[in-house]
Structures are given as structure tokens and as C-alpha cells.
């Protein structure tokens, strides 16, 4: 007589179905696929000395502009999202020439946004879905993204992006000179912890509700050390311990109540920063809630800000613009070719308008210099972060 088979493990339930089947019925589930490690990707697509100089030099320059010890204006400009590497590189080449032309007055950093936070549903960005068709080839997206960033920084053009996945900076952080925490994530503990360890200045957007306090709170949170779960460069699941980031700042992007770039709005934001003991400086996003998502309205925002900057308004250290080669936006439709250099997410300004606006901002900085002495080196900077208790 054969012995009865002894199960490896006791049955997980007496009712219908296995544990896996029951889990499926009561929520979502995950499948996994291995990804190259950050170290392996960096080895394949390394940062050259020239690229490192661009990235690090621009980080330091952004800090000086934010602190007011460099009297130029920070201008973060580029597509709402990158969906086509060739178009991004064509834009980068144009921007590089313009950045050189205005370099005495503007510190130009290109938006190279690869992860899109969506209000509900929509294409999540090149990093997650590089073929724009829902195939979600994330490994290829990371490779393409890093290769493109190396090429853009290789032109001598510094890079800005929004950090969405807390794992992405391990793969791309060494190529970025300015980061954003977006309106949809500025209240997220994970993103505040992430910002506290990022090796670059980080703009904290006001929340989608319009709350500027959320951005101020995020700056306070990111200025101190944290510990959170992540991956090390060799891919090992790790506790990431951060130092705190003293170079975070508010980005006013408007909200449901309308724009928030008026003099009164800026004064209110500076007062909130003062009350929190933080450096009094803001960056104005000409797009999003400040333009009612109408790309053409960014012109009016820039025109008003140029006037106010020329008149010496305190506290505004930079602007953000959404711009691509071709104005407007387009939908991605299977089988229909895309217009080269036009956004597939938010509508953007076209190149010619962008160039004119940057020249007008440069002119505003020059006019300000005529009436004001160079900014002093005594502008407030964030205090050193506290150590872990
Ligand atoms: O900047 C881009 C968009 O404003 C952001 O990703 C939200 O887009 P959505 O509201 O179209 O989803
Ligand atoms: C999503 C963006 O901005 P916000 O977080 O302000 O909506 C963006 O700049 O792409």
C-alpha cells in the first residue's frame, strides 16, 4: 500500500480556491520582471568628464541664482514631456545656442520630463512607455532616457526633470541639475524623503488644490535627514539614509482658484517661507494653473514677470515654461504619424515664441541691473540640516 502524499505545506484555506486565487479576487496583483541595476546602466552609458562638468556646474549655478548671489534668472524650459528622442535632441540643439546667447542674464536648463503624473489616466511618459502604445517596456525606456540625457548634457545643456518614481533617481540622478516634485506628489511623504537626498536643487510645486503651504511644508520636510526604502546602485534593496536638502524652493504653478503669480501671491508665498524660517525665493511656472493650460497664455505670464523683474521685484528667482518645436499639442492615435516636435501631453509654446520670450527675460534682467547693484552675497540660504536624532 502506498503512503498517502504529504503536502509540503498545509493547505492555506478550507474554502474555495488557493491563497493566490483569493488574493486575485480581493484586489490587484503584481508580476515582476528583472531590470538592469543602476550601476550596470551607468557603466553602459557613463557620465563623461564633460557631462559631469555640465551637470555639477549647473547645480552650483542654480544654487547661486536661488540664493541671489548670481543675479541671473533661472529659466527651466522645454517640452511638457519627451516622447521622441530625435525631436528632443533637435530642440536641445536650438536651446543650447539660445542659452549661450543669453548666458550673461539667464541660466537656462532644459525640461527633459520622462515620467508624467496623470490626473487620472494617460500616457505615463517615455521612461515607462517608450513606444507610446501601452507596451510598458520600462527597461528600454530607462536605457533610451539615459542615452538621451547623456547626449543632451553632452551638448553642454543642463537638464531638469520631475522625479516621480522614487527609484528613478538611482538610474538618472547623476544627469540632472534641477528636479521638481510635482503638484500631485508634493504632499507625499515618499517624495519629500526622496528630495531630501537628491543631489540637486528641487522645486516643490504648490498642490493641485492651489495650496502653497503644501510646498512650504515639503521644503521643511526635505531639508532634514530621512530614511526610506529603496535600491542601492548595485540593485540591493536598501535603507536609503539622506542628509537633508537645503536647496528646495517653492514653484508657484496656480490652481483651481486661478493663477498665483501676482505680486500679492508672491508676497504671500514669501511670507509663508519667512514664517517657516526658510529662504525667501520662488520660481514661477508660466504653464499649468498659471496659464489655465492654454499654452499661448504663457506669453502673458512671461511678459508680466519680465516687467516686474525689470522693476526689481524681490524673491522671484526663476521661471518655468513649456515649449517644444511646434506649438500646441496632439493626440497619439494608432496608425497616424505624429507631428515632429509637437507635445503629446500639455500644449506647448512653439520655438520662435520661446526664443522671443527668453530674449525678453534676458532684457528684463539687464534692465534690473541698471537700477540695482549686483545682488549681495548675504542673501539668506537654508540652514544646515539637522542630524538624525
Ligand atoms: O504637465 C503635464 C500635465 O499637466 C500633468 O501630467 C497632468 O496631466 P493630465 O491632467 O492630462 O493627466
Ligand atoms: C506635471 C507637471 O506640473 P504640475 O505638477 O505643476 O502639474 C509638469 O510640469 O509636467
From TrEMBL:
Pfam families: DAHP_synth_1
Protein name: Phospho-2-dehydro-3-deoxyheptonate aldolase
Its job: Stereospecific condensation of phosphoenolpyruvate (PEP) and D-erythrose-4-phosphate (E4P) giving rise to 3-deoxy-D-arabino-heptulosonate-7-phosphate (DAHP).
Keyword terms of this UniProt record: Amino-acid biosynthesis, Aromatic amino acid biosynthesis, Transferase
InterPro entries: Aldolase_TIM (IPR013785), DAHP1/KDSA (IPR006218), DAHP_synth_1 (IPR006219)
SUPFAM superfamilies: Aldolase
Species of origin: Streptoalloteichus tenebrarius (strain ATCC 17920 / DSM 40477 / JCM 4838 / CBS 697.72 / NBRC 16177 / NCIMB 11028 / NRRL B-12390 / A12253. 1 / ISP 5477)
Pathway: Metabolic intermediate biosynthesis; chorismate biosynthesis; chorismate from D-erythrose 4-phosphate and phosphoenolpyruvate: step 1/7
Segments of skewed composition (Polar residues): 371-381
Amino acid at each position: 500500500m502506498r503512503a498517502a502524499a504529504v503536502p509540503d505545506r498545509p493547505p492555506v484555506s478550507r474554502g474555495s480556491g488557493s491563497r493566490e486565487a483569493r488574493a486575485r479576487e480581493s484586489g490587484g496583483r503584481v508580476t515582476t520582471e528583472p531590470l538592469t541595476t543602476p550601476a550596470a546602466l551607468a557603466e553602459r552609458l557613463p557620465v563623461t568628464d564633460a557631462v559631469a562638468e555640465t551637470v555639477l556646474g549647473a547645480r552650483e549655478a542654480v544654487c547661486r541664482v536661488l540664493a541671489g548671489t548670481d543675479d541671473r534668472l533661472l529659466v527651466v524650459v522645454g517640452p511638457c514631456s519627451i516622447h521622441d528622442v530625435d525631436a528632443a535632441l533637435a530642440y536641445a540643439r536650438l536651446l543650447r545656442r539660445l542659452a549661450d546667447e543669453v548666458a550673461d542674464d539667464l541660466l537656462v536648463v532644459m525640461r527633459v520630463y520622462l515620467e508624467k503624473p496623470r490626473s487620472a489616466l494617460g500616457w505615463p511618459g517615455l521612461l515607462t512607455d517608450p513606444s507610446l502604445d501601452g507596451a510598458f517596456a520600462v527597461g528600454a525606456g530607462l536605457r533610451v532616457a539615459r542615452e538621451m540625457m547623456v547626449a543632451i548634457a553632452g551638448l553642454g545643456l543642463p537638464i531638469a526633470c520631475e522625479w516621480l518614481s522614487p527609484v528613478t533617481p538611482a538610474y538618472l540622478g547623476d544627469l540632472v541639475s534641477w528636479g521638481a516634485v510635482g503638484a500631485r506628489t508634493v504632499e507625499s511623504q515618499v517624495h519629500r524623503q526622496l528630495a531630501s537626498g537628491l543631489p540637486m536643487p528641487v522645486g516643490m510645486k504648490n498642490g493641485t488644490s492651489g495650496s502653497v503651504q503644501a510646498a512650504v511644508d515639503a521644503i521643511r520636510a526635505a531639508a532634514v535627514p530621512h530614511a526610506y526604502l529603496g535600491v542601492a546602485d548595485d540593485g540591493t534593496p536598501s535603507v536609503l539614509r539622506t542628509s537633508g536638502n537645503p536647496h528646495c524652493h517653492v514653484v508657484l504653478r496656480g490652481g483651481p482658484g486661478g493663477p498665483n503669480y501676482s505680486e500679492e501671491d508672491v508676497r504671500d508665498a514669501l511670507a509663508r517661507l519667512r514664517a517657516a524660517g526658510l529662504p525667501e525665493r520662488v520660481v514661477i511656472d508660466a504653464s499649468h494653473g498659471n496659464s489655465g493650460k492654454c499654452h499661448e497664455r504663457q506669453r502673458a505670464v512671461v511678459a508680466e514677470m519680465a516687467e516686474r523683474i525689470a522693476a526689481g521685484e524681490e524673491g522671484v528667482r526663476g521661471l518655468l515654461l513649456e515649449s517644444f518645436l511646434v506649438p500646441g499639442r496632439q493626440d497619439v492615435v494608432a496608425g497616424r504619424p505624429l507631428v515632429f516636435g509637437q507635445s503629446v501631453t500639455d500644449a506647448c509654446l512653439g520655438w520662435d515664441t520661446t526664443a522671443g520670450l527668453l530674449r525678453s527675460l534676458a532684457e528684463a534682467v539687464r534692465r534690473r541691473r541698471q537700477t540695482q547693484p549686483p545682488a549681495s552675497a548675504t542673501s539668506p540660504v537654508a540652514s544646515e540640516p539637522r542630524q538624525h536624532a
